[in-house]
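Minutes, project check-in
Item: structure for the 441-residue chain
Input as provided by the requester:
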Amino acid sequence: MALSTSEDSTVSGSIFPDLSAEDSDDFGPTQIESLCMNCFQNGMTRLLMTKIPFFKEIIVSSFACENCGCVNNEIQSAGKIQEQGVQYTLHASSTQDLNREVVKADSATTRIPELDFEIPPFTQKGALSTIEGIIDRAIGGLEQEQPIRKATNPEVASKVEEFIEKLKKLKEVETPFTLIIDDPSGNSFIENPCTPQKDEALTVTYYKRDAKQDSMLGIQECAPEEKTENTIAELRNEVLKFPTNCPECNAPAETNMKLVQIPHFKEVIIMATNCEACGHRTNEVKSGGATEALGTKITLRITDPSDLTRDLLKSETCYISIPELEFELGMGILGGKFTTLEGLLTDIKELIVAKNPFYGGDSNVPEKYAQLKEFADKLNEIMLIKKEAHLILDDPAGNSYLQNLYAPDPDPEMKIEKYERTFEHNEALGLNDMKTENYQQ
């Protein structure tokens, strides 16, 4: 086996460079001479380790055999398994929906309910494709064994042929259909072409994996640790430290965790990670209390530079919207944060514009680029108080907070509403399946 790679591939300290349209000599593909399973002669496998925004690190592999012409391409996730699984539900109603880019991990299940069609997990390799590409791949897989079926079982071959025709008709989108990608690893993705606006045709749901899904992904249940008795006062004053890996370069790092009391609100848990290898820093906020009986909706009218200095706690269950920009950010995106209003708007701008993977480099579309630039300019005007706007924090769990500059008096620019959660809210929070009484029965 022969192996060759770029000499300076580890100069920057990370083996997963950012995906870029610019050629780089520092991060070339690794070439491995390997056996062709078609003609059993030696071919060449090329491995490229890179990082795609919203998809963490991936390994792109490409095999080509010069003897028989056999080729094979696939991608594998090199990043960690996410804390939650994700399910994307797309209601396709036009041919434009077929052009959406898709990252499908090998652990994902693909379903089309209208045809009672399902691709089980680990039956296909991971792929970076489109909705149309996913359908074409399914058609190709079914057509592969058709000559054998026609010779051995014509009746089954006829039924498979009818089903293939149904799949081909999906590409014409004569009638709307639903595509569901359910990935327990959380490493799959479907493009939102309406960014930064909400995509009405696409629903994203995050969920907690069950024991069977953990087992399928090779995650073992942690052994129970010995319990130690600590008083509440000791926990509040203690900074807990535990080892982890840096989300940027995957080097060993340390995460600090502290219980903090927010005035006029409740206790929260602040987690901060600092990587000494690449200098990356991150912080995350978790609610230290229970889910509130009522949801909370906070509406702030931004009129003064002092509004940007307000302390803000955004929980993982909080929705964010800015009506003047027709912008809405769903639950789970950006994670939990304890920052200021200006910091939150800066994070939104970075997420929607700077880190958008589908509107930069070779994927740049002039019309969509202009739309994103217009959104960024309007957001800048809001941050400079040149444009009046409203920020809405809608948290079904009631665990988000925005500082009242007039406390303990009411804030004339801020409106706080309490509301009863809907069934969909409780389903997203996992409360519908939660049993708190007689749970041993």
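Outcome recorded: The mean pLDDT is 82.
No further action items on this chain.
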